[in-house]
Protein backbone atom coordinates (compact mmCIF):
# COMPACT_ATOMS: atom_id res chain seq x y z
CA UNK A 1 0.00 0.00 0.00
CA UNK A 2 1.00 3.62 -0.48
CA UNK A 3 2.32 5.49 2.56
CA UNK A 4 -0.56 7.95 2.33
CA UNK A 5 -3.01 5.11 3.08
CA UNK A 6 -1.81 5.08 6.70
CA UNK A 7 -4.80 7.08 7.90
CA UNK A 8 -7.24 4.57 6.41
CA UNK A 9 -5.35 1.74 8.11
CA UNK A 10 -5.38 3.39 11.54
CA UNK A 11 -7.25 1.30 14.12
CA UNK A 12 -8.15 3.36 17.20
CA UNK A 13 -7.56 1.65 20.54
CA UNK A 14 -7.52 4.28 23.31
CA UNK A 15 -8.41 7.95 23.74
CA UNK A 16 -5.15 9.32 25.17
CA UNK A 17 -6.37 12.85 25.84
CA UNK A 18 -9.05 15.41 25.05
CA UNK A 19 -8.44 19.15 25.19
CA UNK A 20 -11.25 21.70 25.11
CA UNK A 21 -8.74 24.58 24.91
CA UNK A 22 -7.47 23.81 21.42
CA UNK A 23 -10.44 21.46 20.74
CA UNK A 24 -8.48 18.32 20.05
CA UNK A 25 -8.40 14.61 20.75
CA UNK A 26 -5.45 12.23 20.63
CA UNK A 27 -5.97 8.53 19.92
CA UNK A 28 -3.54 5.70 20.48
CA UNK A 29 -3.96 2.87 17.99
CA UNK A 30 -2.19 0.79 15.41
CA UNK A 31 -1.37 0.82 11.72
CA UNK A 32 -0.73 -2.67 10.36
CA UNK A 33 -0.32 -3.92 13.93
CA UNK A 34 2.35 -1.43 15.04
CA UNK A 35 1.75 1.50 17.46
CA UNK A 36 0.50 4.82 16.12
CA UNK A 37 -0.77 8.16 17.46
CA UNK A 38 -3.52 10.13 15.72
CA UNK A 39 -4.23 13.76 16.71
CA UNK A 40 -7.45 15.43 15.56
CA UNK A 41 -8.31 19.14 15.66
CA UNK A 42 -11.88 20.28 15.06
CA UNK A 43 -14.72 22.42 16.44
CA UNK A 44 -16.39 19.40 18.03
CA UNK A 45 -15.86 15.64 18.11
CA UNK A 46 -17.70 12.45 18.91
CA UNK A 47 -15.94 10.11 21.34
CA UNK A 48 -15.54 7.46 18.64
CA UNK A 49 -13.10 7.61 15.75
CA UNK A 50 -14.61 6.81 12.34
CA UNK A 51 -12.32 5.87 9.45
CA UNK A 52 -12.75 8.42 6.61
CA UNK A 53 -13.66 7.57 3.04
CA UNK A 54 -11.22 10.12 1.59
CA UNK A 55 -8.37 12.28 2.82
CA UNK A 56 -5.58 14.59 1.65
CA UNK A 57 -1.96 14.11 2.70
CA UNK A 58 -0.19 17.44 3.35
CA UNK A 59 3.16 16.12 4.51
CA UNK A 60 5.16 12.91 4.96
CA UNK A 61 8.64 12.68 6.47
CA UNK A 62 10.10 9.63 8.20
CA UNK A 63 7.54 8.49 10.84
CA UNK A 64 5.45 11.69 10.57
CA UNK A 65 2.40 12.09 8.30
CA UNK A 66 -0.19 14.87 8.39
CA UNK A 67 -3.15 16.03 6.34
CA UNK A 68 -6.88 16.66 6.39
CA UNK A 69 -9.94 14.50 5.88
CA UNK A 70 -13.58 15.36 5.33
CA UNK A 71 -16.23 14.18 7.78
CA UNK A 72 -19.18 16.43 8.56
CA UNK A 73 -16.58 19.22 8.53
CA UNK A 74 -12.90 19.44 7.67
CA UNK A 75 -10.65 17.88 10.33
CA UNK A 76 -6.92 18.48 10.72
CA UNK A 77 -5.04 15.31 11.57
CA UNK A 78 -1.48 14.40 12.53
CA UNK A 79 -0.33 10.79 12.46
CA UNK A 80 2.85 9.39 14.00
CA UNK A 81 3.68 5.86 12.87
CA UNK A 82 5.46 3.86 14.02
CA UNK A 83 5.10 5.53 17.43
CA UNK A 84 7.42 4.84 20.34
CA UNK A 85 6.29 4.43 23.95
CA UNK A 86 7.96 7.79 24.67
CA UNK A 87 5.78 9.50 22.06
CA UNK A 88 2.63 7.78 23.35
CA UNK A 89 3.37 8.95 26.91
CA UNK A 90 3.76 12.53 25.67
CA UNK A 91 0.11 12.62 24.59
CA UNK A 92 -1.38 10.64 27.49
CA UNK A 93 -3.29 12.83 29.94
CA UNK A 94 -1.42 12.99 33.24
CA UNK A 95 -0.57 15.06 36.29
CA UNK A 96 1.97 17.88 35.92
CA UNK A 97 4.49 19.00 38.53
CA UNK A 98 6.95 21.91 38.73
CA UNK A 99 10.58 20.85 39.15
CA UNK A 100 13.92 22.65 39.37
CA UNK A 101 16.80 21.67 37.12
CA UNK A 102 20.28 22.93 38.03
CA UNK A 103 23.09 23.32 35.51
CA UNK A 104 24.83 20.30 37.04
CA UNK A 105 21.67 18.21 36.77
CA UNK A 106 21.31 19.12 33.10
CA UNK A 107 24.90 18.11 32.37
CA UNK A 108 24.97 14.86 34.34
CA UNK A 109 21.35 13.63 34.21
CA UNK A 110 18.99 15.46 31.85
CA UNK A 111 21.05 15.59 28.67
CA UNK A 112 22.42 12.01 28.82
CA UNK A 113 18.92 10.69 29.58
CA UNK A 114 17.32 12.80 26.83
CA UNK A 115 19.83 11.79 24.16
CA UNK A 116 19.15 8.16 25.00
CA UNK A 117 15.35 8.31 25.11
CA UNK A 118 14.09 11.33 23.12
CA UNK A 119 12.67 10.92 19.57
CA UNK A 120 15.28 10.78 16.81
CA UNK A 121 15.77 13.80 14.57
CA UNK A 122 16.32 12.06 11.24
CA UNK A 123 13.33 13.92 9.81
CA UNK A 124 15.09 17.28 10.38
CA UNK A 125 18.15 16.19 8.41
CA UNK A 126 15.82 14.97 5.65
CA UNK A 127 14.27 18.44 5.30
CA UNK A 128 17.67 20.14 5.10
CA UNK A 129 18.94 17.62 2.56
CA UNK A 130 15.87 17.87 0.33
CA UNK A 131 15.73 21.68 0.51
CA UNK A 132 19.45 22.14 -0.13
CA UNK A 133 20.00 24.30 -3.20
CA UNK A 134 16.31 25.12 -3.62
CA UNK A 135 15.02 28.67 -3.81
CA UNK A 136 12.54 29.28 -1.01
CA UNK A 137 9.66 29.06 -0.55
CA UNK A 138 9.74 25.51 -1.85
CA UNK A 139 8.10 22.13 -1.29
CA UNK A 140 10.41 19.18 -0.67
CA UNK A 141 10.00 15.57 -1.79
CA UNK A 142 8.48 14.73 1.61
CA UNK A 143 5.97 17.58 1.13
CA UNK A 144 7.59 19.93 3.63
CA UNK A 145 6.79 23.53 2.73
CA UNK A 146 10.06 25.36 3.48
CA UNK A 147 9.26 29.06 3.82
CA UNK A 148 12.77 30.32 4.54
CA UNK A 149 16.20 28.69 4.55
CA UNK A 150 19.51 29.96 5.88
CA UNK A 151 22.83 28.11 6.09
CA UNK A 152 22.12 27.54 9.79
CA UNK A 153 18.32 27.18 10.03
CA UNK A 154 15.06 26.90 8.13
CA UNK A 155 11.42 27.78 8.78
CA UNK A 156 8.49 25.53 7.88
CA UNK A 157 4.87 25.01 8.99
CA UNK A 158 4.49 22.89 12.11
CA UNK A 159 2.87 19.49 11.73
CA UNK A 160 -0.13 20.66 13.78
CA UNK A 161 -1.11 23.61 11.53
CA UNK A 162 -3.53 23.09 8.64
CA UNK A 163 -1.65 25.80 6.67
CA UNK A 164 -4.89 27.69 6.05
CA UNK A 165 -6.42 28.96 9.32
CA UNK A 166 -4.41 32.03 10.37
CA UNK A 167 -5.89 32.07 13.89
CA UNK A 168 -4.08 28.78 14.54
CA UNK A 169 -0.89 29.62 12.60
CA UNK A 170 2.08 27.57 13.81
CA UNK A 171 5.57 27.61 12.29
CA UNK A 172 8.74 25.82 13.34
CA UNK A 173 12.34 27.04 13.12
CA UNK A 174 14.77 24.12 12.87
CA UNK A 175 18.50 24.49 13.61
CA UNK A 176 20.94 22.70 11.32
CA UNK A 177 23.68 22.25 13.95
CA UNK A 178 22.98 18.95 15.78
CA UNK A 179 25.29 19.93 18.66
CA UNK A 180 22.83 22.61 19.84
CA UNK A 181 20.31 20.51 21.75
CA UNK A 182 18.40 23.17 23.71
CA UNK A 183 18.68 26.81 24.72
CA UNK A 184 21.27 25.70 27.33
CA UNK A 185 23.89 25.27 24.57
CA UNK A 186 23.42 28.81 23.29
CA UNK A 187 26.19 31.38 23.87
CA UNK A 188 26.78 35.04 22.97
CA UNK A 189 28.29 33.88 19.67
CA UNK A 190 24.80 32.63 18.71
CA UNK A 191 23.13 36.03 19.13
CA UNK A 192 23.59 36.96 15.42
CA UNK A 193 21.95 33.63 14.48
CA UNK A 194 19.01 34.28 16.80
CA UNK A 195 18.60 37.81 15.47
CA UNK A 196 18.60 36.47 11.89
CA UNK A 197 15.84 34.10 12.95
CA UNK A 198 13.83 37.05 14.26
CA UNK A 199 14.17 38.80 10.89
CA UNK A 200 13.43 35.62 8.94
CA UNK A 201 10.27 35.17 11.00
CA UNK A 202 9.09 38.56 9.74
CA UNK A 203 9.57 37.40 6.13
CA UNK A 204 7.95 34.00 6.67
CA UNK A 205 4.93 35.53 8.39
CA UNK A 206 4.56 38.12 5.62
CA UNK A 207 3.93 35.25 3.19
CA UNK A 208 0.72 34.64 5.15
CA UNK A 209 -0.07 38.36 5.60
CA UNK A 210 0.84 38.02 9.27
CA UNK A 211 3.06 40.19 11.49
CA UNK A 212 5.27 39.44 14.49
CA UNK A 213 3.05 41.40 16.88
CA UNK A 214 0.44 38.66 16.38
CA UNK A 215 2.68 35.72 17.30
CA UNK A 216 4.74 34.28 20.15
CA UNK A 217 8.28 33.18 19.25
CA UNK A 218 9.75 30.85 21.84
CA UNK A 219 11.79 27.81 22.82
CA UNK A 220 10.14 24.92 24.66
CA UNK A 221 11.88 23.80 27.80
CA UNK A 222 11.83 20.86 28.11
CA UNK A 223 11.65 20.34 24.34
CA UNK A 224 9.99 17.29 22.80
CA UNK A 225 13.16 16.42 20.90
CA UNK A 226 16.75 17.42 21.60
CA UNK A 227 17.71 19.33 18.45
CA UNK A 228 17.39 23.09 18.92
CA UNK A 229 14.19 24.51 17.47
CA UNK A 230 11.94 27.52 17.94
CA UNK A 231 8.15 27.75 17.84
CA UNK A 232 6.20 30.57 16.18
CA UNK A 233 2.50 30.44 17.04
CA UNK A 234 -0.44 32.80 16.80
CA UNK A 235 -1.37 34.67 19.97
CA UNK A 236 -4.99 33.90 19.06
CA UNK A 237 -4.42 30.16 19.35
CA UNK A 238 -4.33 28.02 22.48
CA UNK A 239 -1.60 25.57 21.49
CA UNK A 240 -0.17 23.72 24.50
CA UNK A 241 3.40 24.42 25.61
CA UNK A 242 3.28 28.23 25.69
CA UNK A 243 2.72 28.69 29.42
CA UNK A 244 5.21 29.57 32.17
CA UNK A 245 7.40 26.59 33.02
CA UNK A 246 7.14 25.23 29.48
CA UNK A 247 8.54 27.97 27.25
CA UNK A 248 11.05 30.84 27.05
CA UNK A 249 10.52 33.71 24.61
CA UNK A 250 13.22 34.13 21.96
CA UNK A 251 13.73 37.79 22.85
CA UNK A 252 14.30 36.83 26.51
CA UNK A 253 16.90 34.29 25.38
CA UNK A 254 18.75 36.96 23.38
CA UNK A 255 18.64 39.45 26.26
CA UNK A 256 19.87 36.80 28.72
CA UNK A 257 22.84 35.96 26.48
CA UNK A 258 23.74 39.65 26.25
CA UNK A 259 24.07 39.68 30.05
CA UNK A 260 26.22 36.54 30.12
CA UNK A 261 27.41 34.09 27.48
CA UNK A 262 26.68 31.22 29.89
CA UNK A 263 23.37 32.63 31.14
CA UNK A 264 21.33 29.54 30.21
CA UNK A 265 24.19 27.12 30.79
CA UNK A 266 24.39 28.25 34.43
CA UNK A 267 20.73 29.03 35.12
CA UNK A 268 18.55 26.86 37.37
CA UNK A 269 15.44 26.25 35.26
CA UNK A 270 11.97 25.69 36.69
CA UNK A 271 10.16 23.25 34.45
CA UNK A 272 6.54 22.11 34.34
CA UNK A 273 6.73 18.41 33.51
CA UNK A 274 4.26 15.57 33.03
CA UNK A 275 4.62 12.52 35.26
CA UNK A 276 4.18 10.48 32.06
CA UNK A 277 7.20 12.16 30.44
CA UNK A 278 10.30 10.07 29.84
CA UNK A 279 12.18 12.89 31.60
CA UNK A 280 10.24 12.58 34.87
CA UNK A 281 12.20 9.51 35.97
CA UNK A 282 15.32 11.61 36.68
CA UNK A 283 13.32 13.50 39.33
CA UNK A 284 11.55 10.48 40.82
CA UNK A 285 14.69 8.40 41.38
Automatic annotation (TrEMBL):
- Give any Gene Ontology cellular component: nucleus
Protein's name according to its UniProt entry:
M7GpppX diphosphatase
The family database entries (Pfam families) matched by this protein are listed as: DcpS, DcpS_C
Q: Which GO terms describe its biological process?
A: deadenylation-dependent decapping of nuclear-transcribed mRNA
| Alphabetized GO MF terms | hydrolase activity; RNA 7-methylguanosine cap binding
Domain of life, per the record?
A: Eukaryota
Please give the family membership noted in the entry. Belongs to the HIT family.
